[in-house]
Amino acid sequence: MTLTAPSSTPGIAGAVDVFDAAPQHEQVVFAQDPESGLRAVIAIHSTALGPALGGTRFFPYASTADAVADVLDLSRGMTYKAALAGLDLGGGKAVIVGDPAEMRARGGQEALFRAYGRFIASLGGRYVTACDVGTFSEDMDLVARECAHVTGRTVAHGGAGDSSVLTAFGVHRGMRAAARFAWGSPDLAGRRVGVSGVGKVGRHLVELLLKDGADVVVTDVAAAALDRVRDEHPEVTVVGSTEALLASALDVYAPCALGHAITPEVAATLSARIVCGAANNQLAAPGVAETLLARDVVYAPDYCVNAGGLIQVADELDPSGFRFERAEQRATGIEATTYAVLEAAAQDGVSPAVAADRLAERRIREVGRLRGLWLA
C-alpha cells in the first residue's frame, strides 16, 4: 500500500510504500467499520519475545499517513520497552483516527470500540491492546466484550484500571536514578522539576515529586488540566506554555505529553541537567541524543522510564489474575534498570539512547523464541 504524506511528516515523506516505511515490522493492519466510524491502524513490530502488547491511541490525525507514521514509531518503541523491562512480550500499537471528544459527545463509543474489538480478535492473540492517549479503561471494557486480547480494563471487570498510576511511579523511579547518576544522590528535594503535560500521567507524577520536596512548575495545552493542578496543589507554579517552561531555570525537564518534545533547538538550549519524562518517542531528530550528551545533560530513555504502565497492564495476563502489589514491585526495578543504562552509556562512550537500545536488542536476541514469530 502506498500513502501520500506531507513532507513534514516524521519518518514518511512524499509517496511511500508501507513495506519500505516499516521494514522491521511483522504486520500492519488497516481496520475500517463505516457504520461505527472506526478507522484504525494496528502495527505489530515484533513477537520474538511473546504477543505484542501496546495501547490504543485515539487522536484526530491530519492524515492517514500521519497516523501510520505514529503507529510505526510507537509499536517499535513498545518492543524495546517490553524487552528492557524484562517482560515476555513483544511490541505493538494501534491508533484510531478521529476525534474522541466528538465520538463520546454523540454516544458512539460502544459501537466503535466493540467493532474495534472484533478486529483485534481477528489477529488471534498476536496483538493485545490497552489504553493510551484518548482511550480509557471503560473503553477497554467495551473491547473485552468482543475479544479476550485486551488489558487495562476497569478494576470492576477484573482489570488493572488506570495504568497511568504505575507509569508515573516508574518515571519517578527513573528520575531518582538519573539524579543519583548526575548528582550522586537520588534525592529530589529542592530540585526544580518542569513537567510538560499534566494529564493522566503528569498529574500523578506531580504528586510524587511534591512528596519528595521538589519545586514543581507545570504547563499543559488543556486549561482544565492546569486548573485541576492549581486546585489540588496550589504550591505548584503554572506557566502558560512549554516555551515558557523551557525558558525557566530547571534542574529536571519531564516531557509528559506527546512525542518529539526534544527537538535539536531544545537540546541545544535546555537549562535542565536531566531529561526524564513519560512521553513516548521524545527525541525528535537524529543527533538529538548526542547533543544532550555533549552538553552533559543526562537523558533517561523514555521507553525505559515509562514502562510502569506496561508492567501494570501486563500483570493482567498472569493466570492468577491482576495484583497491583506485584506489578508495583516489578516497576520498582525501573530505577535499577535506568541506572544500569546510564552506567553502560558512560562506560561505552555512547548516549543513553544507544545504550538502552543495545541492552534491549541483546535480550531480544538471547531470549527471543527461535521461531521468531508468536502464534496463539
Automatic annotation (TrEMBL):
InterPro entries: Aminoacid_DH-like_N_sf, Glu/Leu/Phe/Val/Trp_DH, Glu/Leu/Phe/Val/Trp_DH_C, Glu/Leu/Phe/Val/Trp_DH_dimer, Glu/Leu/Phe/Val_DH_AS, Glu/Phe/Leu/Val/Trp_DH_bac/arc, NAD(P)-bd_dom_sf
PROSITE patterns (UniProt xref): GLFV_DEHYDROGENASE (PS00074)
Keywords per UniProt: NAD, Oxidoreductase
Highest taxon listed in the record's lineage: Bacteria
Domain Glutamate/phenylalanine/leucine/valine/L-tryptophan dehydrogenase C-terminal span(s) in chain numbering: 161-372
Pfam families, A to Z: ELFV_dehydrog (PF00208), ELFV_dehydrog_N (PF02812)
Family: Belongs to the Glu/Leu/Phe/Val dehydrogenases family.
PANTHER family: LEUCINE DEHYDROGENASE (PTHR42722), VALINE DEHYDROGENASE (PTHR42722:SF1)
Official protein name in the record: Glu/Leu/Phe/Val dehydrogenase dimerization domain-containing protein
Organism: Nocardioides fonticola
